[in-house]
From TrEMBL:
GO terms for cellular component: mitotic spindle; spindle microtubule. Belongs to the TRAFAC class myosin-kinesin ATPase superfamily. Kinesin family. Ungrouped subfamily. Residues 224-255, 354-423 form a coiled coil. This is Kinesin-like protein. PANTHER family: KINESIN-LIKE PROTEIN, KINESIN-LIKE PROTEIN KIF11. Residues 1-208 form the Kinesin motor domain. Residues 294-320 are annotated as: Disordered. ARM repeats lie at residues 473-515, 514-557. One of its GO terms (molecular function) is ATP binding. It comes from Sesamum latifolium. Keywords: ATP-binding, Coiled coil, Cytoplasm, Cytoskeleton, Microtubule, Motor protein, Nucleotide-binding, Repeat. GO terms for biological process: microtubule-based movement; mitotic spindle assembly; spindle elongation. It comes from the Eukaryota. It holds the Pfam family Arm.
Length: 649
């Protein structure tokens, strides 16, 4: 009844169909999507969906399906050994000297459709609601038949929007899927009309050709998660190092302050002790001199020392007091006591003791000077410590600035990652469509016009993205990537060149920039069959131009293509090579070189592949070759090249 119902959730009976305006993919966002764990789970889901289907009893069938049923299985697989290490121009991300390689994911979708059979009301006897269901079934099948007829007749317009059934199955007919159609008929003569129309429908469907392709893309979500984890680790490591650096600065500052305090305290204690010692020695020396003087005075009496009145009238007692006073103040002047006489030995002894006292005083002064110099040294050390602290503070400020720059770089890398992800998705979709729709394929050019018409409405945004990518990156940088040591980089670069070569406006630029020479060199030097397939497709696109055809021949292109055909095992590679040689066969000036360099022989040798796409290209090449020769000469050349009939031919 032109409504989409979820058989895994029957309550959801009004699901809308959403179409991506850029890629043209059709999806059902409201439908239930279940992750399959094992074969048993998958079988249970099939039984559950089958139980919810509508069926009714008619005159022709006791359990007649009243609706079409569609099973969609989405498969996603990571491709091992295909991690891409692209340059910055091609979408890779380089951080801290390491190249992050996004994993490659291969996607596929299996669609199994059970179409309800068409009904004739006079035979089925449908009434009421069953009659309305029969009308809707017949209308949707009629819409599907119109689409098949349009594709089979190479019509410019395919009415896929006439029914929700055709919208959901647009990729299955005339798209990029591998499609099989099973039709059922009855042996009864009564239903001869239905049997005849069903067989005719199957015959028309057989004329539709699909372009099968592998859908691979980068898993940028996984790469984004890896980047975020690595950035978190870098930030945590930076913060840890910064904290350790600050702790080390604080520890050194505390040690320097503690050392300075200890030195100052030890200097003050040493200075105080030295001062007390000098004072004590001084007092003891004075007392000892006084005692010795008294003892000598008592011992000798008047024999050796004569004390008499002085010139100013003072007696001996007053002179003795004056002497003690002079000695106590260390201003002893023996000349002021002329009456007192000492023995020569005693005078020498006193002089010796005074000399010793002077030496002790000088030693104390030297010790004080040494302590002062140590104090100055420690002050200088403190100043150096302060300068070092200032240096560390400066380094800390630089680290803070570096951290801010690193955070800005992290934000910039995150924004670049988002931009790269967006541009890579745009480029991938454009490259896939370019390889699927722009490569010369075909028998009788049945599909290209239909596909160009289908892409005309939905591909404007993609073409704009290709132009944007071409303008931003530049042709010379793209051609430089053809010489990269990384195989994946070369493959993607060749895909871009092949996609650009599909436009006639870009072919002259590619040839002038040396793109044709680079493609031939890549075909000669590489051993990767994927590179051979894509490079041959790009050369086939360039070979559509007559001037480029002569350049390909002059640079030994036909020999390289023949050698590639002899080595290739993949039917798609042979299809690309056959398409390139078929384009060269349409040039009248190149017939002799094609025969001499083995081009026609290589074309005929690819018949053994037996793949329908390869056979179509071989047939097109032979047709082009025959058009350029006269009937007699072309027949003779072909027979001569073929030789005796073989089972393969």
């Amino acid at each position: 009844m032109e409504t989409v119902q979820d058989l895994l959730n029957p309550a959801n009976d009004s699901i809308s169909i959403v179409e991506d305006p850029k890629s043209g993919d059709v999806s059902l966002p409201g439908a239930t999507l279940v992750e399959i764990r094992d074969h048993k789970c998958f079988k249970e889901l099939l039984q559950l969906g089958e139980a919810h289907r509508f069926a009714a009893n008619t005159k022709l069938n006791t359990e007649s399906s009243r609706s079409h049923a569609i099973l969609m299985v989405h498969i996603k697989r990571s491709v091992k050994g295909r991690n891409s290490s692209l340059s910055s121009e091609n979408g890779s991300v380089t951080l801290m000297g390491k190249t992050l390689k996004p994993p490659v994911v291969r996607k596929s979708k299996l669609v199994i459709v059970d179409l309800a059979g068409s009904e004739r009301i006079d035979k089925s006897g449908s009434e009421g609601h069953t009659l309305e269901e029969a009308k809707s079934i017949n209308l949707s099948l009629s819409a599907l038949g119109k689409c098949i007829n349009a594709l089979a007749e190479n019509s410019a317009h395919v009415p896929v929007r006439d029914s929700k059934l055709t919208r959901l199955l647009r990729d299955s007919f005339g798209g990029t899927a591998r499609t099989s159609l099973v039709i059922t008929i009855g042996p009864s003569p009564r239903h001869r009309g239905e049997t005849s129309s069903t067989i005719m429908f199957g015959q028309r469907a057989m004329k539709v050709e699909n372009m099968v392709k592998i859908k691979e893309e980068f898993d940028y979500k996984s790469l984004s998660r890896r980047l975020e984890i690595q950035l978190d680790k870098l930030i945590a490591e930076h913060e840890r190092q910064q904290k350790a650096f600050q702790d080390e600065i604080e520890r050194m500052a505390l040690e320097a302050q503690k050392h300075i305090s200890e030195v100052e305290l030890s200097y003050a204690d040493a200075l105080e002790k030295e001062k007390l010692r000098c004072q004590t020695d001084y007092v003891e020396s004075v007392k000892r001199l006084e005692q010795e003087w008294k003892e000598k005075q008592e011992k000798h009496g008047h024999g050796k020392v004569k004390v008499g009145p002085s010139d100013d009238g003072t007696d001996q007692k007053s002179n003795g007091a004056t002497l003690r006073s002079a000695i106590g103040s260390r201003l002893v002047n023996f000349k002021t006591i002329p009456p007192v006489l000492f023995a020569p030995g005693e005078v020498a002894e006193i002089k010796q003791k005074l000399h010793n006292e002077i030496l002790l005083r000088k030693a104390a002064e030297a010790e004080i000077d040494n302590l002062k110099s140590q104090l100055i040294h420690w002050k200088q050390t403190e100043a150096a410590r302060n300068a070092e602290l200032l240096k560390f503070r400066k380094m800390l400020e630089d680290e803070v600035c570096q951290k801010a720059k690193l955070e800005e770089e992290i934000e910039m890398l995150q924004s670049q990652l988002l931009q790269i992800s967006f541009e890579a998705d745009e480029s991938r979709r454009n490259l896939d469509r370019g390889m699927g729709g722009n490569t010369p394929s075909s028998m009788d050019s049945l599909m290209p016009e239909v596909k160009h018409q289908q892409l005309r409405n939905s591909g404007d945004g993609e073409k704009a993205s290709v132009v944007k990518l071409f303008e931003q990156v530049g042709l010379h940088k793209i051609l430089t990537l053809l010489e990269s040591e990384d195989a994946d980089v070369r493959i993607h670069a060749v895909k871009v060149v092949a996609n650009l070569a599909a436009e006639e406006s870009n072919q002259e630029k590619i040839v002038e920039a040396g793109g044709l020479t680079s493609l031939l060199t890549l075909l000669r030097s590489s051993n990767d069959e994927t590179v051979h397939r894509v490079a041959a497709g790009a050369i086939a696109n360039l070979a559509m131009n007559e001037t480029n055809q002569e350049l390909i021949m002059s640079q030994g292109g036909i020999s390289l293509l023949s050698l590639t055909a002899a080595k290739a095992q993949d039917p798609q590679t042979l299809r690309m090579v056959a398409g390139a040689i078929a384009n060269l066969c349409g040039n009248d000036k190149l017939q002799a070189k094609l025969r001499a360099e083995g081009g026609v022989r290589a074309l005929l040798g690819m018949v053994g592949c037996r793949h329908p796409d390869v056979l179509a290209q071989v047939a097109r090449g032979i047709a082009n070759f025959a058009k350029c020769e006269s009937r007699a000469s072309s027949q003779g050349d072909i027979l001569r090249l073929l030789g005796p009939p073989t089972e393969t031919c």
